[in-house]
Amino acid sequence: MHRTLRALLAAAIVMTTFFPTNEAAQKKDRFYFERLGYAHWQVPTHRKVVALTFDDGPDPTYTPQVLQLLADYHDQATFFLIGRKVGEYPEIVRQTALLGNELGNHTFSHRHLAHMNAQELAGELDQTQSAILQATGQRCKYFRPPRGYYDEPSVLTAHDHGYPVIMWSWDEDSRDWQAPGVHNIVNTVLKHVHPGDIILFHDGTGNSRQTIAALREILPALHERGYQLVTISDLLRSADHTDAESK
Ligand SMILES: [Zn+2]
């Protein structure tokens, strides 16, 4: 073998062995999908903006209470809707959109994605999109998987259908669906909050009563700290441009 070629090969082996970024790029984890822009857990920004997100609605008891609270504080949020429920409560969905909130796709059945193939997921996305379109005349842009489960096939299926996947900040899971107590929900959210966070709540579970009580404390507290509460679209627009993007 030519000496130069051998030296190059040796260098290549050293590069792949000692540069962990190469290895990380191969791993289909959060950071891999974030780099591609196929999924978001939080948004890099220096602006004091956060996005509140509400899963599993619409719910006839809790969604109107969340909407009222958001309106009282002139805030907007994003609601990841279960398509099956959209058909049951189209008026609540219409009201949610009319108040300037954003609507997102949370599948039609809320089945775990591990038990769905690509075709089934595509069908659920389409069914939910149709239900939302019928209720509001608007199309939704983002997808949140039930229970935050994601893998490469599901992220790619969502991407192929035009949906970025929206997860939530790792330290901003309020765990409100477990009814941990109002105080705990408030503390979890406020203790770790920082610019660009995506905060997870539920307005469509049996335990959402605690969510409402917690929001009564969280909304004024976030405003007091100078935060603006925005939709996912607005949060993504607030992202700082990285060096790579501006080149
Ligand atoms: Zn859910």
Briefly, what is this?
With 247 residues, the protein is α/β, with parallel strands linked by helices. 49% of the residues lie in helices and 11% in strands.
Name a few traits of the molecule.
alpha/beta, Polysaccharide deacetylase family protein, 49% helix, binds zinc ion, single chain, TIM Barrel, 2 domains, 247 residues
Describe the 3D structure.
Residues 1-24 form the signal peptide. There is one protein chain. This protein is α/β, with parallel strands linked by helices and 247 residues long. The protein contains twelve helices and seven strands. The strands form two sheets. Strands 2, 3, 4, 6 and 7 form a five-stranded parallel β-sheet that branches. A two-stranded parallel sheet has the order 1-5. Helix 7 (118-136) packs across helix 8 and helix 9 runs parallel beside helix 10. It has two domains: 1-36, no CATH class; 38-240, TIM Barrel. Residues 13-20 have low confidence and may be disordered. Helices cover 49% and strands 11% of the residues. The structure holds zinc ion (ZN). Residues 55-56, 106, 110, 146 line the site of zinc ion.
